[in-house]
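Example record for the data management plan.
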Amino acid sequence: MKKIVVLGAGMVGRAIASDLSSKFDVTSVDFSDDNLLLLQDEFKIKTIKADFRNSELIREIIREFDFVVGAVPGFLGYETLRNMILEGKNSVDISFFPEDSFQLNQLAIEHNVTAVVDMGVAPGMDNFLLGYHNSKMAVENFVCYVGGLPKVRKYPFQYKAPFSPIDVIEEYTRPARYVVNNQLVTKEPLTDSEFLHFDNIGTLEAFNSDGLRSLIRTMNVPNMIEKTLRYPGHIDLIKAFKAAGFFDEKEISFDGNIIRPIDFTSKILFDSWKLKPEDDEFTVMKISIDGKENEVNKKYDYLLYDEKDKVSGFSSMARTTGFACTAVVNLINDELFDKKGIIPPETVGAEEVAYNYVLKYLAERNINYKLTIE
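Corresponding structural encoding:
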């Protein structure tokens, strides 16, 4: 039985470890005793406590494993992936770090490593689906709307964070890049809001966020944009926080202490935004891909709606993100994908066998991307 180590035992990391444990010998690594105890008690998964900032220790840990999954917070992701590559380990990573992963491409090739990055729900499955259709047609427009939200709208935030608040805040502060008429356009996040209606949900508000990531580099598509979905009213509240300086990274002095406002804000919001085990939530994603296929206008619309699994207790965001990751782990293990280097999801999706494999894998776990063709 192959041995897999999952780096990170947060909400998504636990879902990944649990899913993989049915087929592999899985060990989970984290710095949180609470996170590791959950895996030990509920899923009987082996655990190791370690600080991910200790590169030497992390490399020593992963050395004995056949495959590595990265599910650490974004600010730790780049260096952690570099350590995986230096140890010559094939990997799938969902840490969504801000650095350019392609800077590690040559290193991965030199170490004969397949390192699939950003393989979650978004980024992840949206890239994957675009990659597939881009291999079949001349795509002209790609639009993705995505959000993870609590079913109960509790004011004032009407939001629960399915992952680290500091990573959520980054969605609100990082400039949003998208493509218009083959030109890269950069705008402030939280701008160009629009309202969309979804069955079983109601009205949600979408805003610009920097979600295209590798697509800007890999896809020659004239028009591409991704927007984040929240309940109406959330955006205006976040704009007020931002204007007041709560997200500033420049250090300030307060009562003799030096702090960064963004660190203070993240800590304060953690309790308000923390998704508790009893909270019901959902993930929704709408993707539109249109262009010419065999000289005929074609439009493909995908709709994902997923709720918390009441049996396993895993949130929809943990399921939709984590199981997209584990699908590709299994794809590589089954020797159906073996390209070397830094591999974004769109490169995986461009291969028909991978497209069919991943969607079937997700459907078996009741994660369904409903397709409408016009």
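Summary line stored alongside the record: The mean pLDDT is 95.
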